[in-house]
Amino acid sequence: MALKDFLSRNKSAILERWFEKALESYPADTTGFLKQRRRQFANPVGYTTEKALESIFDWLLQDKGFDEVTPHIDDIVRIRAIQDLAPSQALVFLFHLKSLIRERVAGELQAFSAELRDLDSRIDALSLISFDIYMKCREKVYELKANEVKNRTYRLLQMANLVCEVDEG
Amino acid sequence: MAKFTAKPDELSKIDFTPPRTRWMETPVEIREHMFCHAAKPKELDVVGFPNGHEWRPQDEDWKLPENWERMLLEKMSDLLGKYRSFKVFMDICVRCGACADKCHFFIGTGDPKNMPVLRAELMRSVYRKNFTAAGKILRKIAGARDLTVNVLKEWWYYFYQCTECRRCSVFCPYGIDQAEITMMGRELTNLLGLNIGWIAGPVAACYMKGNHLGLEPHTITSSVEFFLDDIETITGIRINPSFNRKGAEILFVTPSGDLFANPGTYTAMGYLMLFHELGLDYTWSTYASEGGNFGFFTTNEMAKRLNSKIYAEAKRLGVKWVLGGECGHMWRVLHQYMDTWNGPADFLEVPKSPITGTVFENAKSTKMVHITEFTADLIKNGKLKLDPSRNDHLKVTFHDSCNTARGMGIFEEPRYVIKNVCKHFYEMPEDTIREKTFCCGSGTGLNASENMELRLRGGFARANAVRFVHEHYGVNMLANVCAIDRATLSTSMDYWVPGVGVTGVHELVGNALIMKGEKERTIDLRMEPLPGKEGAQ
Questions:
Q1: Is residue B7 part of a domain?
Q2: Strand arrangement, sheet containing B396-398
Q3: Is B19 part of a structural domain of the chain?
Q4: Residue range B472-529, pLDDT digits in tens
């Protein structure tokens, strides 16, 4: 049996553990709430996290390009980038997947070793993508701050003749 | 983002699981990006607030006045005696948890102390220790604790992480209003000079100059002149509004943010166009030039003082009634407090629309009408010529502002107006609108920039619902009737749902309004081409 088939059969068990591990970043009193997953609007963090993890997992089992998975990584990283998490805590969820898969594979590590190496490098690539998204989000936060200052006083700047068009040509 | 402290070789050993401690044993950590800068002493001094001093939230020493504990407990005793609701809310919670997951800050931060029940418990624990027999005797067993510097810091941190939106109170079987507990928390911290600059600055400016931005009369008039120039460019019509005109029938009051902050400025242009088209006998005031009331986020007394200028100006000008613009907390204050504080305004008349003859019985006491009620009545009576196709490029949804929704029950009027000036309107999911609406995440004076992460976390629940209609129906415009919403939802959308703009309802009205003698319109109030007129410029 190929590793992908094995993972496909064990999908729900692995996803369950992965979701729980991802929620460990939050305080204990909060995880109970976040696990109430199917409540899209009452619990957007739990819902989005679960959906994104599932989509990322499905992508790993398919032969699709990175463009297909990037929006799902964005969904989860965009939330974690502005929460009370250090960068390493925000992005550790992708690294969890490696150990969770190995736990599941357990006795058949040898048989799957070559495929596991491939899978690891795919997850590593996703981790690199997540770094890029994380940084974009952080840069966006500072851009938002700057834009607010401009918007708040835009009319005043205009009245003082301090606004000009920049010719990009 | 939390500060990163691990060294590279420690990375692999990090335990990413937060410590499991009970809330009382979990000391508060004042985290960057979550709080606003401290108020400057001069901003507090100007209105006579006590104990203004230099301090920084992130410092260990907050330089509290001597005997601060006694001062604070005396004030708490005073408030408990004065406000029956406060006393009741301290006593009656049964910790059923119905409120716990209803707070946008809890949903977005995952911080248990943002559960309304726990936020209230921060104060209840001190109440029990000092004001109840059970708490004095049984102490911790009865959920009581001493008032310490760390407890005070915890109060400050979390009472400035509540936007008094009242969503939790909708779900509380006892109707406990967390907003009122937060108000008390802010009143108590304000007593010790622990206010924030983003609130204290506008309060001082409003007290001295009449509006939060500190605009002087000539600045206000010249800003409106700017709008008039733009309106003339767009419609070919020159409007000549009046300022401080005695004998006008109506005084118009709106948040000062509409005069300078985009996209609120376009909403202000919408007001001007509508009133001109109606030939309304109204005037702006450069003294009562602020509908908002940041005093409401400091003390009851300060809110009353700032509010009084509206009736004082109405009296001075001799108007018959007051028309109010699109604002959020302005309306909670007007609807629930103004009449008690500074009314009854017997010198004014019960508002009656001079165009339709409709008498606004609901404003019989306050004498102040919300502009969407006024405009909805005009449309209902067929008094406006509208061309909704000018808004055809927009797919609109409506965000109920907490204060107009839960604070005064305005649900239908803005929707009625929007549906008459736009063809494409889509509601967000039921649990996120009307009385269950989610806060923008930046109200009650928390719309500063230094606390951007708090705002983005708090704004996620609202943005998540907008994203749903954006993805399902192609919604690209988020309408609302609040100046703080207009400013802060723009930021929230930019982060969470790029591609969705933010507008006031009267910007949409201004675009659709067919004015007598106007030239063929090719651009909208943002000076962007109207649908189908892209090549006309």
A1: no
A2: B396-398, B477-480, B501-504
A3: no
A4: 999 999 999 999 999 999 999 999 999 999 999 999 999 999 999 999 999 999 999 9
- Note whether B83 and B221 are same-domain residues: no
Separation of alpha carbons B331 and B515, rounded Å:
29
CATH code of residue B95: 1.10.1060
Q: Which residue of B has its CA nearest to A46?
A: B107
Question: Number of structural domains, chain B?
Answer: 2
**Nearest residue to B313 via CA among B361, B363, B248:** B248
Q: Are residues B190 and B214 in the same domain?
A: no
Q: Do B226 and A81 touch (CB under 8 A)?
A: no
User: DSSP of B381-402, one letter per residue?
Assistant: TT---B-GGGGTT--EEE---H
Considering the domain architecture, whether residues B386 and B507 belong to the same structural domain is answered as yes
Q: Check whether residue B216 and residue B244 sit in a common domain.
A: yes
Cβ contacts (< 8 Å) between B112 and chain A: which residues? 27, 29-30
CB-nearest partner of B460 from A79, A149, A153: A79
Closest CA to B176 of B283, B98, B274, B271: B98
CB–CB of B286/B220 below 8 Å? Answer: yes
**How many Å apart are CA B525 and CA B274, to the nearest integer?**
13
pLDDT of residue B418: 98
Q: B355: domain range?
A: 202-512
Q: Do B23 and A48 touch (CB under 8 A)?
A: no
Residue B160 lies in a domain: yes
Report whether A106 contacts A131 (CB < 8 A): no
CB within 8 Å of B372: residues ≥ 6 apart: B326, B410, B413, B414, B417, B481, B505
Whether B108 and B207 share a structural domain? no
pLDDT digits over B154-183, tens only? 999 999 999 999 999 999 999 999 999 999
Q: Cα torsion at B440, B198, B80, B152 (round to 10°)? A: 100
Quick one: average pLDDT of B415-440? 98
pLDDT at B52 (0 to 100): 97
Residue B442 located in a structural domain? yes
Asked whether residue B367 falls in the same domain as residue B339, the answer is yes
Q: How confident is the model at residue B117 (pLDDT cuts 50, 70, 90)?
A: very high
Interface test with B, best of A41, A77, A89 (most B CBs within 10 A): A41
Same domain membership, residue B139 and residue B232: no
Query: Looking up tokens 């949804």, which residue turns up?
Result: B397
Domain boundary, last residue among B195, B216, B233: B195
For B209-258, what is each residue's pLDDT tens digit?
999 999 999 999 999 999 999 999 999 999 999 999 999 999 999 999 89
Contacts of B487 in chain A (CB under 8 A): 148, 151-152
Confidence (pLDDT) at B535: 81
- Arithmetic mean of pLDDT over chain B: 95
